[in-house]
Amino acid sequence: MSTISDTIQNILEEESCSRIIISKPSKKTNEFRKIDIQNKEKSFQIAKYTQKQVFHENVAGKDLPQRVEELTINEGFRQINLFTTDHEFIALLSKKGDMNLKKRTLKCDEKQCVATTHNREKNYIISEGQQAPPLVDMGVFTKDGRVVKSMYDKFRQINRFLEILDDEIKELKTDSLNIIDFGCGKSYLTFVVYYYLTQIRHIKANIIGLDLKADVIKKCNQAAEKYGYDTLHFELGDINGYKAPFDVDMVITLHACDTATDYALYNAINWNAKMIFSVPCCQHELNKKIHSEELALLTKYGIIKERFAALATDAIRGNLLEYSGYKTQLLEFIDFAHTPKNILIRAVKKPVTAKGTREKALAEVERLMKEFGTDQTLYNLLMEDKEN
């Protein structure tokens, strides 16, 4: 009787494997619910899903047949689906260990589906199949961890935000982070960030969400208690003048309206936060003030003036963060209302090495403001501190 490894080896000698799914655990108490193996060209990536987490490992192609057999037998699974370019091989295992192998030819739409699934999953931090309670309550996941079809755009947007965070967090050598989320609102992303840090990155996250709406704060605290998120709390308070109860490592501010973003960035700078992630919203301040004789074309048409003012506002903020010692990037980010792409500011505290870098960043801000006869809240706050 052929073993699992022999069977897979024989298939791989004839066809190229794109994906393997190991499923149907024999007992409800099994640690893993399913195992998904993807061909990553240089190796195969194995994703092992529990109720709440996913664990990854990589295996070379030559070792794949034996590893699949070990995972199937040791974890007590009863089914293996192996996909190639043209076929699906289905191996059903009996309680006695006997194997029944079936082969079927994939239809054209099924080939596309396998390829699309592979492409869309390969970079996602929270993958389909994970048990993330906040995403279930948001309606993004079903109870068994599948993405609701109508919510796939939001699923991608959430992962996009986590990717932007992960680019920095994966390089950190720390087991805990203190985080302030200004203007948290209903806190959908706050809960997702907590899940990502604690369940995926295994970092202890102390997070405080701050908002002005008492009913929202109450519901968020109830949800945190429901999920068992013991170090996630929500408080009623204003961004301006907020006193953090701990040394702040990260500040998140999503869609804080107009100058509220400036006060959040100002607080983050004063706290010497290591990381800042900000999605500004409703940049009205400069739109009301800017004017220019030389560049009147940029302020002549209302819609052009509005968009230019918003872009100029975030350019000023980016430079002022650089002036304050942060390596700053302005990245495209899609918000949850499916509106056009907007900007996310990612700022990471870094030692300034190039001579004159801070002074140049500040001078660029001052020249822009002079040309358009305006000032800006974050600039005013920082300059007041400089004078005092």
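^ that was protein a. below is b, sequence first then the tokens
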Amino acid sequence: MPPTDLPDPATSKWSTVKRLRWPSWMPIDPYILLLLGTVGLAALFPARGTGADVASGASTAAIAFLFFLYGARLSTREALDGLRHWRLHGTVLACTFVVFPLLGLAARGLVPVFLTQPLYQGLLFLTLVPSTIQSSIAFTSIARGNVPAAICAGSFSSLVGIVLTPLLAAALLGNSGGGFSADSLVKIVLQLLVPFLAGQVLRRWIGGFVARHKKVLGLVDRGSILLVVYTAFSEGMVQGIWHQVSPVRLGGLLVVEALLLAVMLALTWYGAKALRFDREDRIAIQFAGSKKSLASGLPMASVLFGAHASLAVLPLMLFHQMQLMVCAVIAKRRSRDPVDDDVTGSAPAAPSRNAVGTGPRSR
């Protein structure tokens, strides 16, 4: 995003933040209702034959365009400046691609009591996916944290994940997921990284247009994800794999994911405090280091898991909804905390001010 789009964390009117502020009487983000409706549509009217080929091609094109827009939005100067705050970004990457996968491996002991093997594979894949961009920025802004750092941390995580997630999947899932190969990595790079780089190259000419039409192009973001969800779950219905999931197993999955999220939220907050980050940086680390991206995870799962992608992305979809609801509550509470050094850096990913011990009492 251009520097002029950076919000004032205390009084932000930023559109991304607005989208995440659903009415207090509605416990579920309306977009999640659309996701569930899309799953229902795939169950009742799955794409078959030629229709499935058309849906698959359309979802591939939509995700490529989505990452093209990500590239067009992100300022290259911001990304380069963000490298100065390497400790924060290194911490977020370690949480996303080291701590999360280790917890995923530890969950192997829950099979078969709480999780079936396919659901565990989906849970493990969830722990390998990059962090989010938009929701991390929005929640960091609401909580009055280091917004530029959240922008860079989410972007770096997504770029690193394009290569690292398939490699981790190959090492930890092997052939059990759907078969990893060099061809899978090439497909992911062509679908995600190449469009992103193309957006970066063309940003000089189209960046202003993208910035002026954020709301309209935001529909592309969400529409792309809905299309991928419909394609993946349609394929699952056609393959007849839903008999493997029972309400009891789904309940067990929800409990495991709730524990996973709670552990990561605690580790990112108290771990960042132990590493002597100031309050604004701890907020950015907590929200960027505890989340997983649906936009990045869905197309990767489609390539890596093939016909079993619907079961593979089910844990990710549930975790995505859970993280939005929980982090919305945490962000609002953080925004009410008294802050002695309530000054957020105006430069992208400004280094920590080392004002240790001046932040709010941890909760």
